[in-house]
């Protein structure tokens, strides 16, 4: 039998095929990368930036882009996967538990069932929030409200499971025991409200502190009985079997909180940890390992103390599981809806237009409504050149300036304590510019109208205008046109 001979022609055609396939793969990757554009922190309003994270941001993505971005490196990819994988694992664990234990038929098991569900919901809500928050400013709010709600509900689940299986015998039938669950329920709602409210606080440090405080309070309250047992337990007894898990859980959660509060390591090298290894990645990682330890510890307590607790008659009323837990879930959903309605009123920086301020955009023939209400120093200025564009710039304490527009409209620029100036428009309209304590000036236009400029304590200068309203200011060298 004759063996096949590898000729140079065969080698050539083979390598050509491989190279063409590689080129195809490269083209596909390039096409996908273009489909998920990443932007820098400076292109975003301050509210959407993370401290010391410079790049890898996503903004105004479609759902398809979000899904695609799961498989590319953005500054949220690790955040998403570090909670998506545990969600799947915890869901599998829950399915396994429900097939091996009477989770839904025995009252003693109800707290474990409730707790496990909350332990699935919080990483699920978190990974959804990190994935879809970039689709719109309102999505950012809704996603993170639900994220906070799920975390608050998890704090309730932990309280319930501790009360059912971990509570120290010394505290049974005391005023502390009778108050433990009602206060945990109040903590759950207050944590949710504090976290939601924190999103309306403009000072980033204060906002983070409020959020942290909101969740630390229930954590401390829930942990008091456990700490008491850790300190008083007889080391050799069965009831101490779960303690290594509980101790490790405290350690992991403390590490997670440390990274969340300190922004280490990215504050030491801004930009170096944008895609992997930043503090929020570490928060997720250590937090979820802590939850895993807590589940293990709770299951051991449930199993080891089953007999002694039943002998004493310590069984949590099922109403806490099948009435209060769903009740808290509904309350959280209602609070999310209420908070969503308040966004436009409570967040002065909110713009339904988009999270991006576009400091130096180059759009043409488009409808530009992404000049968010910007804090200084992110200014849409100098290089904004539009053709046939509609611009809705909203700025607080900043400058909307030097926007050159041809055949279009520069309008609805709301500015507080700043300057709306130097709009050069040809055949268009500069209109509805509202400023307080600022200047609307030097707007040069041909065949156009500057209309409805409302000004308090400022100057409208060198402008052709109609219907100006001013108070305590100057309208200087303008020609009033009747419409
Ligand atoms: Zn997160």
TrEMBL record:
UniProt: Zn(2+) binding residues: 130, 280, 284
Sample GO molecular function, one term: signaling receptor activity
UniProt keyword list: Membrane, Metal-binding, Receptor, Transmembrane, Transmembrane helix, Zinc
Pfam family, one: HlyIII
Topology within the bilayer: Multi-pass membrane protein
Compartments (UniProt record): Membrane
Record keyword Membrane present: yes
Transmembrane stretches, start-end: 78-96, 108-129, 141-163, 175-197, 312-339
GO annotations of cellular component type: membrane
UniProt main location, coarse: membrane
Family in the record: Belongs to the ADIPOR family.
UniProt-listed PANTHER family: ADIPOR/PROGESTIN RECEPTOR-RELATED, MEMBRANE PROGESTIN RECEPTOR EPSILON
Name under which the protein is recorded: Membrane progestin receptor gamma-B-like
């Amino acid at each position: 039998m004759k063996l096949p001979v590898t000729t140079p022609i065969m080698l050539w055609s083979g390598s050509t095929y491989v190279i063409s396939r590689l080129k195809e793969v490269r083209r596909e990757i390039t096409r996908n990368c273009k489909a998920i554009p990443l932007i820098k922190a400076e292109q975003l309003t301050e509210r959407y930036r993370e401290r010391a994270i410079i790049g890898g941001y996503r903004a105004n993505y479609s759902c398809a882009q979000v899904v695609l971005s799961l498989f590319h490196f953005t500054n949220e990819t690790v955040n998403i996967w570090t909670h998506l994988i545990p969600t799947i694992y915890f869901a599998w664990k829950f399915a396994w538990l429900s097939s091996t234990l009477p989770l839904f038929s025995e009252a003693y098991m109800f707290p474990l069932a409730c707790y496990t569900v909350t332990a699935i919901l919080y990483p699920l809500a978190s990974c959804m929030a990190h994935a879809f928050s970039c689709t719109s400013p309102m999505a950012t709010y809704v996603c993170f409200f639900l994220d906070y709600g799920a975390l608050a509900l998890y704090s309730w689940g932990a309280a319930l499971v501790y009360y059912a299986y971990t509570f120290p015998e010394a505290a049974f039938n005391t005023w502390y025991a009778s108050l433990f669950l009602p206060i945990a329920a109040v903590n759950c709602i207050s944590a949710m409200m504090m976290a939601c409210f924190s999103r309306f606080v403009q000072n980033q440090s204060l906002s983070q502190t409020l959020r942290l405080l909101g969740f630390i309070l229930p954590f401390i309250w829930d942990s008091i009985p456990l700490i008491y047992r850790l300190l008083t337990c007889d080391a050799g007894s069965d009831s101490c079997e779960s303690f290594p898990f509980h101790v490790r859980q405290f350690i992991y959660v403390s590490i997670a909180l440390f990274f969340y509060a300190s922004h280490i390591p990215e504050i030491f090298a801004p930009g170096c940890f944008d895609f992997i290894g930043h503090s929020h990645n570490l928060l997720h990682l250590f937090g979820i390992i802590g939850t895993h330890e807590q589940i293990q510890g709770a299951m051991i307590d449930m199993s080891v103390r089953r007999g002694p607790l039943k002998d004493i008659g310590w069984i949590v009323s099922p109403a806490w599981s099948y009435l209060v837990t769903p009740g808290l879930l509904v309350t959280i959903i209602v609070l999310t809806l209420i908070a969503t309605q308040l966004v436009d009123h409570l967040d002065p920086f909110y713009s339904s237009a988009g999270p991006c301020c576009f400091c130096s955009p180059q759009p043409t023939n488009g409808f530009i409504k992404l000049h968010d209400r910007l804090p200084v120093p992110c200014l849409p200025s100098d290089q904004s050149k539009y053709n046939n564009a509609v611009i809705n710039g909203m700025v607080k304490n900043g400058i909307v300036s030097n926007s050159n527009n041809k055949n279009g409209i520069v309008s609805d620029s709301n500015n507080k304590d700043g300057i709306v100036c130097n709009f050069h428009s040809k055949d268009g309209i500069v209109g509805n510019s509202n400023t307080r304590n600022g200047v609307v000036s030097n707007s040069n236009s041909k065949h156009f109208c500057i209309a409805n400029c409302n000004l308090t304590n400022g100057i409208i200068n060198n402008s052709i205008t109609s219907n100006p309203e001013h108070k305590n200011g100057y309208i200087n060298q303008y020609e009033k046109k009747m419409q």
